[in-house]
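Entry 12.
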Amino acid sequence: MKNVNWGSVEESNFERVVPGGYICIISSVMDEEVKEYLKIEYDIAEGPLKDYYKNLYASKAFWGGSFIRSYKEAALGFFKSFLVALEKSNGNFRADAFNNEPQKLKRLLIGLVLGEEEYKANDGSIKKRLYVAEVRSVDSIRKGDYKVPELKKYQGNTKNETASSSGFHPIDESVEDEELPF
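Predicted 3D structure (tokens):
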């Protein structure tokens, strides 16, 4: 380790985004036309965590704030709710006049309710991450008119986890060698 004069270094804390309601700004929109969804990246636009994801990206080269909005036929009502939340949050945006140009969503304000969920990491440990639980108007967030969801606990043993951690299925020891076709 290099020689550091710790007496001249100021202590710093890493503030973390916690579940709650946030006024955010859409910073990037990517259209996945084949899969019929938009990947929307956002940042926190107001409060003590303003520019949180921009600062995270500058220090760690990782953008943590994103969510997906599907525009498949079955999800059009949900997409319209997203557009209406944008309309209520931005005086210059009209949901009914949206002309399917995703880049026009950039720099619009949106209210997001962030929840937390557990997931199984590649190393097998259980970790937590934030997700967009609900899209609301900015006014709803300011008024506190939202409910933060409870932690989504990891359920385990999903279809994708039937194999052992080594990636191989267990061998059926009841089968005799003579019964094998090879």
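Annotation: The first strand starts at residue 20 and ends at 32. The two ends are 57 Å apart (CA to CA).
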